[in-house]
Design a protein that fits this description.
Chain lengths: 138, 154
């Protein structure tokens, strides 16, 4: 009896940690964490507050028509956004859009484009990790 | 739904379009072009611009109408080949390119003389800033099946 219980617990435990380890979002986040660890020895984890700050801030070094992430994504992480050509952008908050942050290549492509358009430069791995940490908690 | 709202609110402007020749275009058949050029707006039909325009657009993706729309080098050349091979001045006499001088390289469909005739003269100027339209490049706001090549809405 005890043995069976133990086995069951072990299996559920394994199943859980597998699901967690394999969630596509955690793969994407780990990608940025590894990049950041390579750059900074004193990596202390990503910060949701810094991520939120990046999301709502207005920048002046990018394209004048697009000063902020919120220009297209709306000020609310759960808002449905719009491109400048009028196409719908599904919400960024993971809680209501679990198709988000599932593919490193896609996520990285949009960080590259959007950071350049808004901030006039690429985002650092830390900024990307902060942003994702914020959005994954929304 | 949205279309009928526009038709009604603009005074049923679409009624007369049925006889026009240039209201049906082939679907964008290259999957890479359809996806890479369909992210921020619908993928426009290559027949709507001359080959030199597509070349210029593909070489300027780092500042694409004020945005970074870059793709990797492989994709650039594949997409450019498709757009150029199917461009509006390659192998067919395309009404929408009428009036474009051979020395100009239009970067927008919405700046072609023929496009302006069809639109600016028939639509009130403030239509483009309306919340459900927002941009001249938002073809689907009015032509619901534009991505399927149909501009003969009525």
């Amino acid at each position: 009896m005890k043995k069976i219980l133990l086995l069951t617990l072990m299996f559920t435990g394994m199943a859980f940690s597998n699901v967690y380890a394999q969630s596509p979002q955690s793969v994407v986040l780990t990608f940025y964490e590894n990049l950041q660890r390579e750059q900074a020895v004193d990596f202390k984890g990503f910060s949701s507050e810094r991520g939120q700050n990046l999301f709502v801030s207005a920048f002046s070094d990018g394209k004048p028509d697009i000063p902020s992430c919120t220009t297209c994504h709306t000020p609310s992480p759960t808002g449905t956004g719009k491109t400048r050509a009028g196409k719908i952008i599904e919400p960024m908050a993971l809680s209501i859009n679990n198709a988000r942050y599932t593919d490193t290549v896609k996520t990285e492509k949009w960080f590259r484009r959007n950071c350049k358009s808004v901030m006039g430069r690429e985002c650092t791995p830390r900024e990307k990790g902060d942003f994702l940490t914020f959005m994954m908690g929304q | 739904m949205r279309f009928s709202f526009i038709a009604v609110s603009l005074g049923v402007l679409f009624g007369a379009s049925a006889q026009a020749d240039d209201d049906v275009y082939p679907v964008v058949s290259d999957p890479l072009t359809a996806s890479a050029c369909g992210e921020c707006h619908m993928a426009f039909q290559p027949q709507m611009l001359p080959a030199r325009s597509w070349k210029a657009i593909m070489q300027g993706l780092d500042n694409h109408f004020g945005e970074d729309a870059t793709v990797d080098t492989m994709a650039v050349s594949k997409i450019e080949s498709y757009l150029v091979a199917n461009a509006g001045d390659v192998g067919w006499d395309n009404e929408i390119l009428r009036g474009v001088s051979s020395s100009s390289t239009p970067l927008r469909i919405s700046e072609l003389p023929k496009w302006i005739d069809e639109h600016d003269e028939e639509l009130p100027a403030n239509v483009w800033s309306r919340a459900d339209v927002g941009s001249k490049a938002n073809c689907r706001a009015c032509h619901r099946a534009a991505d399927k090549g149909y501009y003969d809405d009525d």
